[in-house]
From TrEMBL:
A Pfam family of this chain: CN_hydrolase
InterPro entries: C-N_Hydrolase (IPR003010), C-N_Hydrolase_sf (IPR036526), Nitrilase (IPR023919), Nitrilase/CN_hydratase_CS (IPR000132), Nitrilases_CHs (IPR044149)
Protein name: Nitrilase
Protein species of origin: Actibacterium atlanticum
TM segment ranges: none
Length: 326
């Protein structure tokens, strides 16, 4: 049984809606502030850099072109000077950082989660497997290669973004890799109060089912920022509330009171002994599983639009070769 104590920080702050550089500066300042408070793990909201595409939730498609193009210009390339700045901060302070970004990969954008270990190395870059509703006009889809739990200085960490948590098989893929700390990302300042309620239920349920700690971060928009997204008072209602930055124990309880409005940083100590305490009773991927009845098939191959075949030996394992075998 591990007797480790991990101090975690969940950050709820506003991005800079005007520039990637401005948001990166806020990220670096928050890392320093949380590290000064002893944090060993620091979590930021969904696609925090440069900002979540709030415009896509309230503007009709025909009006989104200029803002979508601007998001392309401000999005993050991985690796880049921006990711290196975060890596350097993680290394300098000896902390693990989980950051949501809009990733630009040539002609496409993706909702990406980056995990930097305490030595500054980027140990995971994963992409949201299914963008939700309005987001499908903004981002491409991720693949099974990103459903991965990684070893870090604070333990085994897995991550999902927003409504990926409503895909039970995606969650089970991470649970089966024995994540100790699960990181959740949501945009915040979206939908309304019901969104915060749904996030809380979802995060508490995953903690119970996974037997893991959950550190979840949502973003925040000021009234001034909301006015820059849309001046329509009716549409502005969809850009308020919906914040539930929280830290949950494997027993499904808030370790500290959640942050549901305004800016701030939650700090909590995670007693890793609670993982075994929970799993002794119910290990959903161990003694409580019934693999002879139900099991998950997880395709971990990266999805590629082009595959170059050098010779006939490279055909092995392809659908064509499997069809010939039959």
């Amino acid at each position: 049984m591990s007797d480790r104590i991990v101090r975690a920080a969940a950050v709820q702050i506003a991005p800079d809606l005007t520039s990637r550089a401005g948001t990166i500066e806020r990220v670096l300042n928050a890392i320093a502030e949380a590290a000064d408070k002893g944090a060993q793990l620091i979590v930021f909201p969904e696609t925090f850099v440069p900002y979540y595409p709030y415009f896509s939730f309230v503007l009709p498609p025909i009006q989104q072109g200029p803002e979508h193009l601007r998001l392309y210009e401000e999005a993050v390339v991985v690796p880049s000077a921006e990711t290196q700045a975060v890596a350097d901060a993680a290394k300098k302070r000896g902390v693990v950082v989980v950051l949501g970004v809009n990733e630009r990969d040539k002609g496409s954008l993706f909702n990406a989660q980056l995990i930097f270990d305490a030595d500054g190395s980027l140990v995971l870059k994963r992409r949201k497997i299914t963008p939700t509703y309005h987001e499908r006009m903004i981002w491409g889809q991720g693949d099974g290669a990103g459903l991965k739990v990684v070893d870090t200085k604070v333990g085994r960490v897995g991550a999902l973004a927003c409504w990926e948590h409503y895909n039970p098989l995606a969650r089970y893929a991470l649970m089966s890799q024995h994540e100790e700390i699960h990181v959740g990302h949501f945009p915040g300042s979206l939908v309304g109060p019901i969104f915060a309620e749904q996030i809380e239920v979802t995060m508490r349920h995953h903690a119970l089912e996974a037997g893991a700690f959950v550190v979840n971060s949502t973003g925040w928009l000021s009234e001034e920022q909301i006015n820059t997204v849309t001046e329509d008072p009716k549409l502005q209602k969809g850009l308020r509330d919906g914040c539930m930055t929280c830290i949950i124990s494997p027993e499904g309880r808030h370790v500290v009171p959640p942050l549901t409005e305004g800016e701030g940083i939650l700090i909590a100590d995670l007693d890793m002994r609670l993982i075994t305490k929970r799993k002794r009773m119910m290990d959903s991927v161990g003694h409580y599983a019934r693999p002879e009845l139900l099991h998950l098939v997880h395709d971990t191959r990266p999805a590629q639009p082009v595959r170059c075949i050098e010779d006939m030996q490279d055909l092995s394992g392809t659908p064509e070769a499997e069809a010939e075998d039959v």
